[in-house]
Every structure is written in structure tokens, then in C-alpha cells.
Write a structure and sequence with these properties.
homodimer, alpha+beta, Carbamate kinase, four-stranded antiparallel beta sheet, 12 helices, 19 strands
């Protein structure tokens, strides 16, 4: 990173660099803490974990100094990145950018510890995992930066997972909304929270590889209808399981009586589909994370008994495939193209759920790769030149 | 430590605990820094090193919480321990004890990172090695604590090194001045700086073992003539070498012309003895650290040529033995007891140097152990009951 930053600085860029802890360091510190007291206060966990980034800001500053760059490090408290007092998952309330601006004016590169801040009483807080990206976006917003670059282990956002679709292509740009949909669908390039932040504060975000040169993908809040492709990406997800309750009275409040206890048990529900049948009863199907499948199934069995439901069944052998694109807003026929492509491959659709810029379907999980490839081709990417291979691949 | 602190807290003591980095951690971090940039800014070194204590304050607080003690940690910046801006060896200027007092009032144990502070601009500073003791003393002074306990790897200050004198006894109390003399003579129980600090701010200091129970030794600024023994301790030191320049004109400024260049070469001089001879020439003998012997010898040879001295000779096979005690102020005859004891053992005295509460002699180094034992006996400790054996021994 020091080489990359020094080169950019030599080209005249004013730069603030936000760093995470070294690989494995946060887990090492957590293991130490667990050994000492698994039931400790969150405040002390934050004091401990925040040392991880403090080590890297110092080391990166030293590495920059070695390359002739005047660099200076700041912890979250020093900047000062003011947060609320929810230790372990604090939210940034305000950033005082005066010191950082002062250093930039003097030609310095400023290195800031990500993932951490300070509450109004001066206690050290952390933003939770992935918080370094959030820090970078928040600082970019506070400084009105031209661009916030997020260096990751992938070289951009792809139209589909290149491990499944070899001809998947790197997107030059994608909208914040599309990125959010992709993230929520399991594409793990960036933390959802930092993308939301970028959208909210209109910070242009660029995802690049730490290991390979290249322009990456620009995540922008601006929509350019002329340049916008119909579909930006195809996401897939094998992490979910499906649960169905059948033959329940179709009366107001029944969905809440079913999903309330699920939510109370801290099980997140993703897709929900309800059909009305002719005889005054209804069916409800929803998906949960596969890890929560057994727990949700047990709760649902209890509810079924209470409600006198006809049947409960579940399936954890499913996959979710989604097509995402702001182009959907102005183009009809996307859903039918999708369904036809799946039908041509004889892939049965078990559930459908749509939003303004996304269509998701649930299929039997053995069809996942086939479905992704078929859709990638159906939306016109099949004939394009095969891009260079990726080190790690993400949709 | 958590067990010790929790027990003391249960007995009703209000406590602030100052901790160092874990064993080896500071060296590990320095090695990382050297790898990245041996010529880095001191500011960044301090940012890096200060994480060592930040880890331990969090872990100790967690360990106390596990023992049912409400504990809260503070970094040097958080307390706030204001220092000057000399990175790596900052001096404490002021301590804001408001937050600490607030926590104590609420029955909390406060855990503070030693060795570190913050300058007026909010930069992290470190006090240099051994700085954790200084932090503890400074906090004790700011809080007007009843006592500052320093936990070390020895269980107190001894009348002589128990490795040499098996019947050496642990002192119940010693004055700050005596302790400073012992420290300057090579007894390494505590950093000189923290003892000076304790004396300056009249903080009663107690040295105890981290590993064994016991009252340790109280280092006090109060002199109690009734209880004061004649001699508090016998120190020894094999780290020095002796240099003599003979037959130089006894004119004003000659000592400066000899010792000035030595000092300019950053060689510390310890003992200095000058004799006047009948023929208008003089001899000057001084001691330096053994590591500086060659360097000092070379400088002295050059000076001798300039001054037309008769002879230069040196000896790095020497040992220094000192008896220390505030009792000397009011008792005559200590020097003669010392010289007689050495004479009885046929140990030749090469140099003598005295201060108000100390007499030091230089002898051939093979006599060191014998000299220490003879003196220990001569000052009346010989017949006392043999104390329990020590894990590590210090005079």
C-alpha cells in the first residue's frame, strides 16, 4: 500500500489513507480477550481491538516516510471521529476534519485508523467489522473528497461470479442502489453500510484491487440513463433455507402472528411470499439464513399447532438467483426474459420476489450455476470478449 | 495481578492500577518498526509502542471484571496525562485526575496505561523505558494516594545482593535518598527517575514482588532517626573501568581540559579523584562505564599528548563497593569501620569517593564478593537470622 500511496502522492493527489488492522490481528486480540473473560464489558473490548489499527497507522506512516512522503497518523480519537456510545457497533455522528485539513495543506499524507472512534465522554468505540470502509467514506464526505477508493482483494464488481461464469465482466460503474442490492444478495465486495453511507453523502466510491493495477469499479450515486446497461449484475446465494406453512385462515394479522415470533428469536427473514387460495385459507413461504433453519422450523411448528395450520414444510437445499439493474425502471420485459431463460434450461422456479431494481428467484440448489450462466447469456453478455481471469471472484 | 488487585479492592482499598506492556511486546513492536523504517519519526514510534499498554489495560480490566470488580481502563491520553512533546522520552507536565476520581467514587478500580501520555496538541507520547513506574508515582502524587506500590520481580530492597551475601536482609524501609544512591550504584530495583519523582512529590513508595506475598520495602521521604540504621545497604558494581592520567601541570582548568572531551564524546564519568603532588604536577583518575573504556582511553591518550602528560594508564578489572545510609550524617566512624574491614581482608583500596550519605571504594574486581561480605558483617548484620531465599536478588 505504501508504494501505491506514495506514487499517487507524487502525482500530486492530496490523500487521507484509512487502514484496518493487519490480517488476523483482530481475531488474535479477541481470542486473548475470550481467554481472560468471555463475559467482559464491551467498552474494554473496544479499548483492546482499537490497538489493531493503531499499529497499522504507525507502520504505514513509517513506510511512507521511508519513501520520502511526509506522513502522519491519527487514531479515531485523535481525528476526532465522534460516535455514539454503542460499543462494538458505534455509529459515526460527526468528524472534526480540522487537523486532517491542516496536514493536507502542509503536503502531508494523513493516515487514519479505521473502524474506531470516540464517544462524547472520550471512551474509545469501534464501528464493528468492516467499519474501516465506513470510516473512509465518512472521512471522504467530511473532506468533500473527489473519490473514496476502497482497496480489496478483488479488482472490481463483476456482472456475475467469475468462478461460475468465466466470461463475467468487470463493471466500469454501478449505481449505489444496484450495489446495495448486490450486497444484500450475498455479493461481498463491500460492507452494505459503507455503500449506504456513500449513497447518503454522495461520495463517489471506487473498488480496486490491493494487489493488481486497474481502474476497478466506480460506485456512483449518479444515474446516467444513456450509459446504463439494462442489468448490472447477477447475484447468487446458497446461504438460505425455505419454510412454508400451509392451510392457515386468511385473516388480518396472520402474517404477523407467524413472522413475529420468528423475528423475536432474532432470525432474519429475507424473501416472503403469500398466496391466497380459494377456500379462505392461505399459504406463507419465507426464507431464512441456513444457519437459522432448525430454530425457525421449531418455532414454525409451534405456531402451526396454535393456528391449526394444515402443514409445515421446509427445504434447505435451495439457491437464490437475482438480476439487478436500475435499467429495470424504464424497461419492461426483464422478468419475462429471466423466466424464459430458466424455463429453456428446465429449471423450476420455487419462489419469486421483486423490487424496483431487482428480481430474485429461488430454485433447487443443484441448478444454481446453470441458472447463473443461462441468465448471464440471456442478458446479452454471452458473446462479449472474455475478461482477464480474476484472483478472487465476486458477483 | 488481577487476584492481588481484587483482594485489595475487597478489603476496601481505593485503587488505581498502572500497567506496562506484556513481556516482550515492546521489543516485538520495535522490531516491526525497524523492519519497516529504521529512520522513522519518533512520533510514529510512540503511536506504535503505546498500543502495548493499551492491550494490557483492557485485558487487566476484563480480568478484574471476571473477579466481580467493576474496572475501567484509561490510556494516557484519556486520563489525561499531559506531557511535553519530546517523543520517546517525554516528561509529565500535568495530570487531570477528575475522571479517575469520579470512577473511584463510584467504587471502580481504575486501570491506567503506564509509559504514555499526550502532548498539548493531542499527539501520543511515551516516557521512555521504565516510564510505567513514573506514571504510577505521578498519578499517586496527583491523587494524593496513601501509598504507591511498585510490583517487580524482587520482593524488596536488600542490605546487599543475596547472591553474594546469603544473610542479606530485606529492608523494611529506606529513604528516597538512600534508594537513589543505591540505584545510581547499580542496584536495579527501580528506575531512578520514578524514585526521584516520589521524593519530589513526597509519595510513599513500596516495592513488592509480583510473585510472592510480603510487605516489601517502603521507600519513604521521611527520615526517622530513631529507627534509622547506620547503613541501609551495600551496593556493588562491576560495570566500570578506571583511567588515570599522571604528571600533568596543576593549573586551573586542567580538569576541564581532560574531562571536557570525554563528556563531548557522550561518555559518562562516575568517580573522579585528583591528587596534588609536591612537584607542581597532579594526577587525575576517573571511572567510566566498561563499555566506554576503549573510547575513553583513546581520547585520553590524545589529551595526554596535548598536555605533555607523563603517563596514561587504565584498568577495566575493577569493582566499586559502596555503603549507603542517611545514618552517616549523624554518626562518625563509618569510613574507618569500612576501611578497617577491607584492610582485615587484605583488600587494597584503589580509589575513594564520598558523598553525604555514601562512601564508595574501588578495588580489584576479584575481591568484590569478599569485600561485600566483609562489609555486611562489619556493619553488624552478620549475626542476624538468615532471611528466606530470594527469587532474584538485588542490593
Amino acid at each position: 500500500m505504501a508504494d501505491t500511496v506514495a506514487a499517487s502522492h507524487q502525482r500530486g493527489d492530496e490523500m487521507v489513507v484509512v487502514v484496518s488492522a493487519m490480517s488476523g490481528e483482530t481475531n488474535r486480540l479477541l481470542a486473548l480477550a475470550d481467554e481472560v473473560n468471555p463475559d467482559r464489558s464491551e467498552r474494554e473490548t473496544d479499548v483492546l481491538l482499537s490497538t489493531g489499527e493503531q499499529v497499522t497507522i504507525a507502520l504505514l506512516s513509517m513506510a511512507l516516510q521511508r519513501r520520502g512522503v511526509d506522513a502522519r497518523s491519527y487514531t479515531g480519537s485523535q481525528v476526532r471521529i465522534l460516535t455514539d456510545n454503542i460499543h462494538g457497533r458505534a455509529r459515526i455522528l460527526d468528524i472534526d476534519s480540522a487537523r486532517v485539513r491542516g496536514d493536507l495543506r502542509q503536503g502531508r499524507v494523513v493516515v487514519v485508523a479505521g473502524f474506531q472512534g470516540v464517544d462524547a465522554e472520550g471512551n474509545i468505540t469501534t464501528l464493528g467489522r468492516g467499519g474501516s470502509d465506513t470510516t473512509a467514506v465518512a472521512l471522504a464526505a467530511a473532506l468533500k473528497a473527489d473519490e473514496c477508493r476502497i482497496y480489496t482483494d478483488v479488482d472490481g464488481v463483476y456482472s456475475a461470479d467469475p468462478r461460475i461464469v468465466p466470461e463475467a465482466r468487470r463493471l466500469e460503474r454501478i449505481t449505489v442502489e444496484e450495489m446495495l442490492e448486490l450486497a444484500s444478495l450475498g455479493a461481498k465486495v463491500l460492507q452494505t453500510r459503507s455503500v449506504e453511507f456513500a449513497g447518503k453523502f454522495k461520495v463517489p466510491l471506487r473498488v480496486l484491487s490491493s494487489f493488481e493495477p486497474g481502474p476497478g469499479t466506480l460506485i456512483t450515486y449518479e444515474e446516467d440513463p444513456m450509459e446504463q446497461p439494462l442489468i448490472s449484475g447477477i447475484a447468487h446465494n446458497r446461504d438460505e433455507a425455505k419454510l412454508t406453512i400451509r392451510g392457515i385462515s386468511d385473516i388480518p394479522g396472520v402474517a404477523y402472528r407467524i413472522l413475529g415470533p420468528i423475528s423475536d428469536a432474532h432470525v432474519n427473514v429475507d424473501m416472503i411470499v403469500q398466496n391466497v387460495s380459494a377456500d379462505g385459507t392461505t399459504d406463507l413461504t419465507f426464507t431464512v439464513h441456513r444457519n437459522d433453519y432448525r430454530k425457525a422450523r421449531q418455532i414454525l411448528d409451534d405456531i402451526a399447532a396454535e393456528l391449526g395450520a394444515a402443514q409445515v414444510f421446509g427445504d434447505d437445499g435451495i439457491a437464490k438467483i437475482s438480476v439487478v439493474g436500475v435499467g429495470m425502471r424504464s424497461h419492461a420485459g426483464i422478468a419475462s426474459t429471466m423466466f424464459r431463460a430458466l424455463s429453456d434450461e428446465r429449471i423450476n422456479i420455487q419462489m419469486i420476489s421483486t423490487s424496483e431494481i431487482k428480481i430474485s428467484v429461488v430454485v433447487e440448489d443443484k441448478y444454481m450455476e446453470l441458472a447463473v450462466r443461462a441468465l448471464h447469456k440471456a442478458f446479452g453478455w454471452g458473446e462479449e470478449a472474455i475478461q482477464e481471469k480474476m484472483p478472487t471472484a465476486v458477483a
